[in-house]
Amino acid sequence: MTQDLVVTEQDCATHAGYLMRAIVEGGEVIESLRDRILGRTTAEDVLHPENQSVLAAAGTMLDEDLIEELEAAGVDEVKVRTALTCETRFGICAKCYGRDLGRGGLVNGGEAVGVIAAQSIGEPGTQLTMRTFHIGGAASRSAIASSVQAKSNGNIGFNATMRYVTNGKGELVVIARSGEIIIHDEHGRERERHKVPYGAVLTIKADQTIKAGTTLANWDPLTRPIITEFAGKALFENLVEGLTVAKQVDEVTGLSTLVVIDPKHRGSAKVVRPQVKLIDASGNEVKIPGTDHSVTIGFPIGALVQVRDGQDVGPGEVLARIPVEGQKTRDITGGLPRVAELFEARSPKDKGVLAEMTGTISFGKETKGKIRLQITDPEGKVWEDLVPKEKNILVHEGQIVNKGESVVDGPADPQDILRLLGAEELARYIVDEVQDVYRLQGVKINDKHIEVIVRQMLRRVVVQNAGDTSYIVGEQVERSEMLNTNDALRADGKIPATFTNLLLGITKASLSTDSFISAASFQETTRVLTEAAIMGKRDGLRGLKENVIVGRLIPAGTGLAYHEARKVRENMDDAERRAIAEAEAAELAGQSEVELGEGASAE
Known about the structure:
- The protein is of the alpha+beta class and 603 residues long.
- Among the domains are: 139-221, CATH 2.40.50.100; 352-409, CATH 2.40.50.100; 572-602.
- It contains 16 helices and 35 strands.
- The longest helix has 29 residues, at 574-602.
- It starts with 6 loop residues before the first strand and ends with a helix.
- Keywords: DNA-directed RNA polymerase, Nucleotidyltransferase, Transcription, Transferase.
- Residues 2-513 form the RNA polymerase Rpb1 domain.
- This is DNA-directed RNA polymerase.
- One of its GO terms (cellular component) is DNA-directed RNA polymerase complex.
């Protein structure tokens, strides 16, 4: 599938790229910025954090000396060009690929980078199969983070989605699912960014100046809280002992707590859902400000209720806790099967659900065994999904979520990430996940090899609106062909087609190449050849595989120069060809006259 990816030009002149920063997990640097950007090309000027002078201009390849300068200046993120943002139509450009890892200089034209990428990922695979690491049990449990510390001095800031309330003890309790603490240095540049879970207690305030090592937030890693954002009297609904809740007595302390259970005996019509409503001092239901939704907080199965019926609660107070033990039971596929799963772009078994749009959460009428989850956007458009009751829902009634945010717990589906968060986020996800597998085995692979493969997985697009093209809506087309068609239409002042990205697994991508010779040599030969015959396809012999099959020089290495010279000759008109032929004939005639003259003088 990647064998067709060859360096075909020097520079595609794009300004697109990805921001690279060091990978940090649990306060430990797993992969430094240096390792990630060495041998890459900058996508934009890299500025000095303090005096804003240019340390490296856009389009510079970062070598060891330059990276040392960046490290000395305290640069902590760099926007670099990648194989995924390269705008070369066929193949890839040298600048986006960066350093040839075998030689240490910028990659040469004609280098078969796709083959190198496939080999670089495949070769350590032989080591992966030999020893599988069994993750899980006590070792991984102890590594769960319960707080977050600052690694550098600076000022505290929060991201746009961060929301928190002050509880009775005066602590700040996070009520956002995607809240982040950001630390800026004295020049206002971002130094660190930390995700903070829902229910965490912040130990710092906005705009506070802190020293390295300060604890920013802490939380209970073993339970997930359900928190009220408003004050009022807690009124239980449908919390019937023996039906929806059961008493659980702690063997050690002797204290009893209520645990939400699955109601086995169902009423004929109404589905009972244990929840808490808040009542204000005058006995009315507390409403969410700006809406006529009353504040109702549902309890999922397995939640331990922490409040009593009729108890007064304040904002930031914990109403129930969900033990996280159940969350850890994901199937941990390690080693090669996990890598294959990622590259085949398979949807995981119990996949999580991401919010399809930004809006407010509500729950509709339940069905047997399923909960109706709805999101209403500011314009009033509603999206809904039926979620099985045993699934862990991460949101509650009236909560505002952003597009692409996780609303139901579970492993992410790459297709959802691409659709909702875009190609950059998808690439980041696949690269990080594949690297995690190899890193566990102590294998180092350069990110660019994985990016090259993801580029090939994303090389087809789906037509959304055909415009003035001859495509049909929903048709799958090669990205390069689509861009060429659109360019031609724009030049004629016509309407170009619009399209969305399509993620294909590597097997699927191999079978859907434009070259039927290449596809037929891979799998399903009869089907591929019959289809090609019916559609009267023409193979342009662009890639490596099809050229090997028909016995021509491959368009890589020195073969690339040969094919380019041949194309130049083919594109000449007759007059040019005749002129060259005459010049060559004259040269030959001149040479033969000289030879004849030399022969005569020798006699």
